[in-house]
Structures are given as C-alpha cells and as structure tokens.
Amino acid sequence: MTRSSPIFTNFTAGVFSPLLHGRVDFQKYTNGCKKLENFIPLKHGPITRRGGSYFVAEVKDSTKKVKQTRLVFQ
User: Fold this and answer.
1) How far apart are CA 9 and CA 6, in angstroms?
2) Residue 8 region, left (φ>0) first, then alpha (ψ -120 to 50), else beta?
C-alpha cells in the first residue's frame, strides 16, 4: 500500500496548543502546525524564516570570562 503525505499550502491557523493535537474534527486543523521553530507565520498563510542574530558590541572587559545566558521572550 502506498503512503502519501498531504501538501500544506498555508499556516493561517498558526501553532496549536497540545490540547488540540489529534482533533481532526476542528475546522482549522489542516491549516495549523504542532511545532514551528525558526519560522514566522505571515497573515495570508505562508511562513518565512526568522531573522538571524548580529554582532552589536564588545563586552566591557574582554580579558575576563563572560557568561552567556539564553534570552527568553515571554
């Protein structure tokens, strides 16, 4: 038996919460996704890659050890 995967043409429903996984009766189920990393969904359906990072400035004293922390958006 052959297997096929559906083609996703838009992501207008955005990212679903874990509570909606498997709810195929939900009308927007085919337009959403489970996980979307490093992409930004646009208004009209497509997704685009998020921008990268860039060098801003040197640290105050580069002779000492510097601790790098993760930036978390909330």
Assistant:
1) 9
2) beta
Query: How many domains would you assign to the chain?
Result: 1
Domain of 22 in residue numbering reads as 14-49
The model's pLDDT over 49-64, given as tens digits with 9 standing for 90+, comes to 888 878 888 888 888 8
Side chain identity, residue 11? F
Residue 2 covered by a domain:
no
pLDDT in tens, 13-34: 777 888 877 777 877 777 777 7
Judge contact between 39 and 47, C-beta under 8 A.
yes
Tell me the whole-structure pTM to 2 decimals.
Answer: 0.47
